[in-house]
Amino acid sequence: MDSLNLLWGGLEAAVTPENLLWAALGVLLGTFVGVLPGIGPAMAVALLLPVTYGLDATQAFIMFAGIYYGGMYGGSTTSILLNTPGESSSVMTAIEGNKMAKAGRAAQALATAAIGSFIAGTIGTMGVVFFAPALADIAVEIGAPSYLAITVMALVLVTAVLGSSKLRGFIALFIGLTIGLVGLDLNTGQPRLSFGTTQLADRLDIVVVAVGIFALGEALWVAAHLRRTPLQITPVGQPFMGKEDWRRSWKPWLRGTALGFPFGAIPAGGAETPTFLSYLAEKKLTKHPEEFGKGAIEGVAGPEAANNASAAGTFVPLLAMGLPVTATATIMLAALQSYGIQPGPQLMTEQPDLVWTLLASLLIGNTMLLVLNLPLAPLWAKLLRVPRPYLYAGILFFASLGAYTVNLDSFDLFLLLVFGLLGLAMRRFGLPVLPLILGVILGPIMESKLREALALSGGDSSGLVNEPLAVIVYVLTALFLVVPIAVRYLLPSRFDRSDDAADDPSDERELVDR
Amino acid sequence: MSTILVGYTPDEFGKAAVRHAAAEARLRGYGLLVVNGSKGDAYVDKRYAAPEVLEHVGDDLDGISYEVRQVVASDVADELLRVAGEEGVRLIVLGMRHRTPVGKLLMGSVAQRVILGAVCPVLTVKPDTEPV
């Protein structure tokens, strides 16, 4: 019950008018970017990083948490009304949700998504409250070799298991790791990959990299594909649910939560797998199988709960071990670093105020989402009518402003352009963005752990595997890599779904934006 | 056969334009070319007609030969003029929406651009008006 007391303390700290204002702002901004396809919470947080330097860390994180949850919610609105998933996590919602909307039940679909998200987010956040401290207690004991092993596992899983093409995933990962290498070697002071320029001898600022890849890359991509046939949106009024809808929704909400949270919490998280599993589960368990494919409310309730529970779950590895597994969490980790806070197992003991206020503000933000979004749904739908040139002009303005304010050096604008072109190229060739950004952030952390482990063993490579945990993790990683290939080889017919997606860059791009 | 071009939007303005154009077509024995356009730069454009709506455009056009066309172009006014020139239409009919000077500055006016650029007569109509 210690955790509950700490959470209560966090709630007391979070419920100040100013903090509530930041939470509300975050939630609104998050929904805004979530509703618009292509613009995700990761981009929003990256764009806001320089703006938040003036705030203290707690307030910035309250806002980021709001953006994260708001983005989830906004994505489901677009999925249901437009059949275009705003975020990768709402792909499954679109299947039944849009059918419901077409059948005139958009209000119910939006309501079950919003209430399900709220319930799953709340239960998920409570899960973080109980699991993260316990995990952190264990994680503090973990030595450098095991920490390195876990980081490697996270990178490999995110790269190889999520996403549809391993090759593209690893290309993106290694580009990211390379970008992470730029700058002075922390041990020896030698410049690496700096090409003789003094600006590159400093480490690349994560703001410039993230804003370039997410914002500029996306803007260039949209500029290259500006005109397309407008989509038909389903008109919607106030979301509400009837008695029958409640009766059919509450079980899928809870099942979705149970599926989503663990997937978020393991370092190979992400919402695609649990939302897919939740959809399959609901399809199997439903008493109305005839409605599936025509707009079954269970098919919206389950995946929506799963995606929010998994979003909550990703805070477990982030807070307890400093391991992010989604793009948004990665940028948040970079934000922590920019405040001079060292993420890792010691975070919970060294910065308890920050952690508990953040967790409390997740609960508050979640409640705000429900209160704000149910009445505002028709307004959010109108947002889709904004012409893209206006939208992206604004984004480019903030991107350049942000990149410049980091060091007040015009060289950063040049770097921004370089990373923007890289982002465009990645979208063009269907390279996922998540492994790249994870590589940039985790690369240096991984390197320092590698150095530490090798220093302890006097440079002997056996120092990397002299902890049992490290060995277990490496074995698990190898299994994760080999088993799917083996299964696929032995049972080729059962994997049609991934085959379909393998060579479709646009499909893959949808899957990386979170 | 000579043709009348109608700038169509799925609202009262578009309906009025089709109504007036139909009257002209019956009077002169012309055909109708109904064009619905969008700039296509937003995810959703309420002035881009849904297929179900377009199916019903011809409901009141008994006895008139008509064609419905949807276009996505960077400038809808230019596109209307281009189609008009290509098909050699004899008359363009547009629904006219009221815009304040500021609104015109912000949103532009397709009707104004078509009137200024057209080489044939242009008939602009308001909702709730009946053909002469």
TrEMBL record, chain A:
Residues 20-438 form the DUF112 domain. InterPro entries: DUF112_TM. It comes from the Bacteria. This is Putative tricarboxylic transport membrane protein. It comes from Nocardioides lianchengensis.
UniProtKB/TrEMBL annotation, chain B:
InterPro entries: Rossmann-like_a/b/a_fold (IPR014729), Universal_stress_UspA (IPR006015), UspA (IPR006016). Signal peptide: none annotated. It comes from the Bacteria. Residues 2-126 form the UspA domain. Belongs to the universal stress protein A family. This is Universal stress protein family protein.
